[in-house]
Design a protein that fits this description.
This protein has 307 residues and is α/β, with parallel strands linked by helices. 29% of the residues lie in helices and 11% in strands. It binds zinc ion (2 copies).
Length: 307
């Protein structure tokens, strides 16, 4: 029997409320049940393990400055696989963890110490000092340490697109309006259509949509398209990585309004080639600016098994 679209959508909404009651939210780190009505999707025990970046960062890529230089050993893009070793200095110290226990919307107070605010003007990491990038700047939220790697792995491959909602709350509670101020639209690094169909969702797009829901900045879902299913980046040298993604993206179905300012979402920033390639497409199609936002950034030492 045919079902009308509005009936189907009401049924979906009802089902979602029902599921929330039967399957309440679980901690995004340990997967234990959260207390009913918990503001954040991380339990008290795990909260100290999940610490966003604070202190001076590279003005271009958002990587913490003054520590290990990495970036060539870990694959970003679509494979959350090994090849990357975390830098020990990010073991959860609990510092910078102010959103826990609070509402997460504490205004400016919680923003101190985050991101480029503390970096010396023009401070660049070694990688950014060497390479040209098409994006304006990237904001990275977490260091890509083992806890974050696990979480992102489940978000991407574990059928948990809802993590986007919990993550968006943390992000907005922590970094506040200076992050999205001036952006006309969000975009997401697109997945190859067949891959997206298999996975059922694009985690970068889910994150952009969830942050959009909290900030009111619209998501332009059709400004970018992926034309080739790039190989995993692991094991490729810097030049090969750049070639691997350079032609992977093209303009999507929607026209980019002149001078529009974008923030492109992705899960992990490794070499920056992916965000840069997407930014290039947007700029070539009329955008005025394209910045990046990544859930995490590789910060550790390069693993020496693959040059
Ligand atoms: Zn937990
Ligand atoms: Zn940098």
């Amino acid at each position: 029997m045919p079902v009308s679209p509005s009936l189907a959508s009401s049924a979906r909404r009802l089902a979602s409320v029902f599921l929330d009651c039967v399957y309440p939210n679980r901690c995004m780190v340990c997967e234990n049940l959260l207390e009913f009505g918990a503001a954040d999707w991380v339990c008290r025990n795990c909260a100290p393990l999940l610490v966003p970046i604070s202190g001076p960062v590279c003005e271009k890529c958002g990587k913490p400055l003054g520590g290990g230089e990495c970036n060539e050993g870990y694959e970003g893009g679509d494979e959350c696989n090994g090849g990357y070793e975390c830098n020990e200095r990010y073991e959860g110290s609990g510092k910078g963890n102010k959103w826990y226990g609070g509402k997460g919307n504490g205004g400016n107070e919680s923003n101190k110490g985050y991101g480029g605010g503390n970096a010396e003007a023009g401070a660049l990491c070694r990688t950014c000092a060497r390479r040209e990038r098409f994006f304006g700047k990237n904001t990275a939220f977490f260091p890509y340490d083992p806890v974050v790697r696990e979480l992102i792995h489940r978000f991407k491959y574990g059928g948990r697109p809802r993590y986007a909602v919990g993550l968006a709350r943390m992000i907005c509670g922590r970094i506040g309006p200076e992050f999205w101020r001036g952006a006309d639209a969000f975009a997401a690094v697109p997945m190859y259509p067949r891959k997206k169909k298999e996975r059922g969702y694009n985690q970068a797009e889910e994150l952009a949509l969830a942050v959009s829901g909290l900030t009111g900045v619209p998501v332009d879902r059709d400004c970018l398209a992926r034309v080739s299913d790039t190989k995993p980046q692991s094991g490729l040298g810097p030049a090969a990585r750049a070639n691997n993604v350079r032609d992977a993206f093209k303009a999507g179905k929607s026209r980019v309004p002149a001078a529009r300012s974008y923030i492109i979402f992705d899960d992990v920033y490794t070499t920056g080639e992916t965000i840069s390639a997407c930014a290039r497409v947007l700029l070539e199609n009329g955008a005025g600016r394209a910045d990046g936002f990544t859930l995490a950034i590789a910060v550790g030492e390069k693993k020496k098994d693959k040059a």
